């Protein structure tokens, strides 16, 4: 741990950084190391000046080697979380600015390089039972270094969650900078932070709704036995429950409002409207607005590496001069983030509707096709092909938003389904790395390329593909999808809106398949030959026996005739 000067370049595999800055600072730190790993950066402690605002004092983080790279997010005095940032490559940059107040700011962060494919057992997951238990990895043995686990708890509606730690032993620090557990009052780490704990204690927490998120983060030293925790769901007080929910998919947005809640405010479904008043709800036991993402007056905005679809439900009293009814303004947002959809619902300050969050994702698939018309997908698995045969690959996005582009950024091949060594680059950063690869221009919701089949030396004939797929706003001419092939040096100048990956395979060479078929065919032929030989032998033996019988009959007849002739011969006299 050091006190680095105002900005520096960091190339260690992992490092803890303690930063102290005073007024009018403008400092940039760059983290870079040539590798195929990504970076996780955690600001476990930060203290800004009391007068600071996000506009004048903040930490801004960028996904690349400079402040011109894609914007990942920021930390400022009102940040109510333990910020964690993850790069998409081996470079990451953060920029700290401070205002003119004479005050010593203190920031503590640690970062490390890691492989996203590596997994730790008992590390995170979704818990949906009404009660349950979970433990830190290796418990009661020391937890691994650089652990980052996220547990999401979601119980039945109209309930809250009680969380208790039966055993808890993490590295002790008064500010919990090194190893810690963070508890959030919602289904994501963007929810309100309930607490950040470390050391030895038996903490207890309670959520305000039926969802809670728990994060375990550790650094490189001083591991202890971790924790054992249990949770239970308890009934939530009736008045606080609004029965309001928001669901987002890659095609639709659905908002559900309870009739009883609307009744309590003096409204019914006829008073409600979206940005486009012609879009009406369906009324059942609840009031439901369900519509395509880009319809009903929904506004789409691109923010950093996400695309947000926003609409508003309003209701207000009509007629008369005065009212004592509350006006309703519910703002609903479907935010398409990396690998997931974060759904946000909030309202203006003079109303009382609880915030709702949930998770989802764009619907993306990848398939082989039998020709460059991309009309007939290959459903066979494994897919048997000839060596050097041209293979056609298409990534497809299923969304009602017509202004989205699909771009295949990187695609690697491996003989193993877990993509362990060796691997081979077909496409990297939008650039063709194999001589046979041909990429097609982006076409609406499709990303396409073709290549010639091959096999790995000294390995099985199986080949698996894993591709990183980017989704961008087609109206943004400077988006990553519009840039095509870019070098590593220029990678930071463009951005994407959403990223996922897809795995395809295995592909098998027909030669091996045919060998197996030939072996089976030879076995069948031999099996068929056996009864034929038996039948031939039977016919031959029958013929020999028949011939022998004929010869015997002929011989007997001849002998009889000869004997009969001798009996009538005259005897000569003496």
TrEMBL record:
It holds the Pfam family Zona_pellucida. SUPFAM superfamilies: Spermadhesin, CUB domain. Residues 6-114, 123-234 form the CUB domain. Residues 247-488 form the ZP domain. It comes from the Eukaryota. InterPro entries: CUB_dom (IPR000859), Sperma_CUB_dom_sf (IPR035914), ZP-C (IPR055355), ZP-C_dom (IPR042235), ZP-N (IPR055356), ZP_chr (IPR048290), ZP_dom (IPR001507). Keywords: Disulfide bond, Glycoprotein, Membrane, Repeat, Signal, Transmembrane, Transmembrane helix. The chain crosses the membrane at residues 536-558. This is CUZD1 protein. It comes from Eudromia elegans (Elegant crested-tinamou).
């Amino acid at each position: 741990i050091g006190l680095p000067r105002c900005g520096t370049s960091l190339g260690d595999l992992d490092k803890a950084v303690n930063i102290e800055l005073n007024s009018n600072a403008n400092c940039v730190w760059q983290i870079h190391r040539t590798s195929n790993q990504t970076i996780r950066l955690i600001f476990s402690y930060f203290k800004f000046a009391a007068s600071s605002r996000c506009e004048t004092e903040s930490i801004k983080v960028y996904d690349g080697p400079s402040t011109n790279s894609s914007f990942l997010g920021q930390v400022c005095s009102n940040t109510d979380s333990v910020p964690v940032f993850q790069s998409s490559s081996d470079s990451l940059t953060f920029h700290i600015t401070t205002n003119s107040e004479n005050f010593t700011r203190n920031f503590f962060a640690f970062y490390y390089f890691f492989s996203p494919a590596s997994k730790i057992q008992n590390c995170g997951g979704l818990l949906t039972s009404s009660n349950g238990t979970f433990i830190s990895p290796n418990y009661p043995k020391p937890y691994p270094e650089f652990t980052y686990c996220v547990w999401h708890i979601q119980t039945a509606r109209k309930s809250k969650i009680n969380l208790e730690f039966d055993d808890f032993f993490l590295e002790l620090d008064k500010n919990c900078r090194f190893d810690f557990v963070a508890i959030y009052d919602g289904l994501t780490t963007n929810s309100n932070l309930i607490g950040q704990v470390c050391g030895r204690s038996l903490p207890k927490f309670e959520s305000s709704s039926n969802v809670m998120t728990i994060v375990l983060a550790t650094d490189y030293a001083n591991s202890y036995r971790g924790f054992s925790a249990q949770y239970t769901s308890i009934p939530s007080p009736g008045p606080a429950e609004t029965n309001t929910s928001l669901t987002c998919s890659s095609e639709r947005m659905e908002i559900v409002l309870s009739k009883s809640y609307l009744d309590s405010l003096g409204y019914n479904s006829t008073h409600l409207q979206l940005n486009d008043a012609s879009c009406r709800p369906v009324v059942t036991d609840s009031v439901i607005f369900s519509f395509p993402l880009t319809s009903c007056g929904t506004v789409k905005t691109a923010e950093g590496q996400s695309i947000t679809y926003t609409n508003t439900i309003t209701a207000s009293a009509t007629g008369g001069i005065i009212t004592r009814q509350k006006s309703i303004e519910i703002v609903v947002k479907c935010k398409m983030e990396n690998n997931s959809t974060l759904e946000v619902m909030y309202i203006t300050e003079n109303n009382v509707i609880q915030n709702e969050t949930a998770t989802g994702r764009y619907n993306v698939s990848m398939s082989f096709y039998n020709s460059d018309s991309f009309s007939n997908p290959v459903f066979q698995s494994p897919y048997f092909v000839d060596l050097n045969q041209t293979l056609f690959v298409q990534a497809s996005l299923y969304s009602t938003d017509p202004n989205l582009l699909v771009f295949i950024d990187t695609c690697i091949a491996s003989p193993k389904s877990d993509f362990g060594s060796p691997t081979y680059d077909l496409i990297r950063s939008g650039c063709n790395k194999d001589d046979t690869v041909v990429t097609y221009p982006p076409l609406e919701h499709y990303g396409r390329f073709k290549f010639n089949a091959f096999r790995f030396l000294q390995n099985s004939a199986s080949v698996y593909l894993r591709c990183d797929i980017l989704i961008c706003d087609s109206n943004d001419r400077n988006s990553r999808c519009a840039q095509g092939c870019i070098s590593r040096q220029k990678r930071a100048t463009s951005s994407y809106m959403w990223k996922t990956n897809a795995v395809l395979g295995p592909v098998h060479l027909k030669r091996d398949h045919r060998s197996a078929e030939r072996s089976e065919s030879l076995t069948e032929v031999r099996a068929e030959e056996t009864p034929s030989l038996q039948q031939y032998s039977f016919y031959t033996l029958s013929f020999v026996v028949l011939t022998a019988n004929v010869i015997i009959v002929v011989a007997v007849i001849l002998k009889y005739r000869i004997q009969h002739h001798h009996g009538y011969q005259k005897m000569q006299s003496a």
